[in-house]
Task: structure prediction
Amino acid sequence: MAKTVNATPKKKEKPARKVPRKTKRPKRRYILFELAGGSAVSPKEAFDIVMGACRSALGLETLKKEGIWFIEFNPQSGKGIVRCSHKTAAVVREAIEAVPAKNSGFSAKTLATGGTLRRLKPKLSDGGK
Result:
C-alpha cells in the first residue's frame, strides 16, 4: 500500500480570544493643595486639618470606603498631596477649599488634580508652580 501524503497540513485552530476582564483596581486621583497660615504648618497639623475637613464633608464610613488618603506634605512650601477616588475628587476639592471657613488660622486652596503621583511630585517642592 502506498502512503498518501496530504498536500496541505491541517492548521491548528486558534483558541477563542478571551475578553480581558475589567480591572478591580479603583481609579485614583491625586490632589495637590497648599496650606497657608500665620505660622509654619507641621505635617501632623496639615493631616488633622485636611482629613478633618474631608471627614466632615463625607463622613467617616465614606472616607474609609473611597480610600481617601493623606500622601505627603512639605512643611517648607506648605504643599501636600491627598489621594481619593475619581468619584469623590470634586467633593474632596470642595472640602479642602472650605478649610478657611472652619479654621480661622489657616487658609487652603487646591492647586492641581492629577491621575499619577509622578505628575504632582515636582510641584510639591518650593520651585513647582
Observations:
- DSSP finds five helices and four strands in the chain.
- Strands lie at 28-37, 69-74, 79-85, 106-114.
- Residues 28-124 form a domain with the Alpha-Beta Plaits fold (CATH 3.30.70.3250).
